[in-house]
Amino acid sequence: MGAGSLIVLIICGIAFAGGGIFLSQVLAKTSTNPQKGEAYECGVPTRGRSWIQFNVGYYLFAILFLIFDVELVFLYPWAVVVKDAGWMAFAEIVVFLFILFLGFLYAHKKGALKWM
Amino acid sequence: MLSIAEIANSLQQWLMATFSPGWATLIEFVLVGTLVLSFFAFLGLVLVFMERKVSAYMQLRVGPNRVGFRGTAQTLADTIKLVVKEGLTPDGADKFLFNFAPFLVLITSMLLMAPIAFAKDFQIWDINIGVLYISAVSSISVIGVLMAGWSSNNKYSLLGAMRSGAQIVSYELSAGLAIMSVVILVGSLSLNDIIASQQNGWWIFKGHIPVIISFVIYIIAVTAETNRAPFDLAEAESELTAGFHTEYSGMKFALFFLAEYVNIFIVCAIGATLFLGGWMPLHIGSWEGFNHIMDFIPSSVWFMGKTFFLIFVIMWFRWTFPRLRIDQLLNLEWKYLLPISLFNLLLVTFIALMGWHF
Q: Second label for B129, Cα 20 to 30 Å away, from A21, B71, B288, B309?
């Protein structure tokens, strides 16, 4: 099967999830109660908003991830042809990874990898 | 010998001969859909039962043993219980995103089924960039996790989702680099080419120590990517109740649970395909008699055996290692695994260029 299988799989996913949720809505008993809509935290009603500011550390790691993920995308086409391209390709990737590694060391030195 | 591929081929020929091409394609699509759906449900049932039995034996317990023959129907009973539970949506939640997240997570794991070779010549979509497809699609699921945690309007969920997001994206790098070492040795992104290249020996045997290092890194990284213990901070029960799916109940919770288990199956199937030869039987150099005996075992049995062995290893981790803290987890990835896998990539390239692999 060709790319049409993607459509089949997406439809399958929607059918599986939708079917399950629909079935449970038909079969499950429901009751209304104001307490049921509250957040499941400690028993006391939540004070303030739940969409709060979170640790900036997550953001730093996300940016670092972005750098290395783009590098990974560059590496994929290289990985396919490196056996035919030979030593020249190897030397080039050593230089590429070396520059990237310097950036990584810089981030490490600046304390971006330290969890606050 | 009757193989799955022959059955599928003869079925397709019969369909093409009996119906007009349009109808035949439609019927084929419906058949594939039914097959995938039933495989999905079957996997969920088997893996949950396996998890409970494995953890029971690791702790010298018996595990579920009342419902059905030796407890085999236990997960079915659990599923029925989950279906008849009320599915709540909290008042403060973002209703659309809250209900959309389980769909996204489930569709992602469904899509990952496409390029996996379940047996010889038996694959839903023989895509020539299978490895790239896997790493591209699997990173969508983190959006579903973040969506679920953010929309729940619950601080536990938000924290769990943030941890989970940081963890999944971090370990994706090492997993990608580990996968790439096999791509370098084979010179192709197609899963079929990768399996074909392991005819005379699996990559874990042929590739010397660098490939073994890649395999170990891959297993660690996917354990973290699927949020399994010891990396299960995202739903660390003792501190965050249930992490990003705290507010989910009933069937919506079951869908997250199911997607998680199917993801474990998928990453183990990819690991088995890349490093352990997929459906390729165990062949040893020039032992003709031994190789001939191994060929008698069907290819689907080989594939499932390797995959379930890796799943067992990942379940074994859960009862062996204590949970890490978030800073330890990120340290392990960024200060150890990432530099090691970058250096290992160069080693593998060196071996591939020198032609030292068998």
A: B309
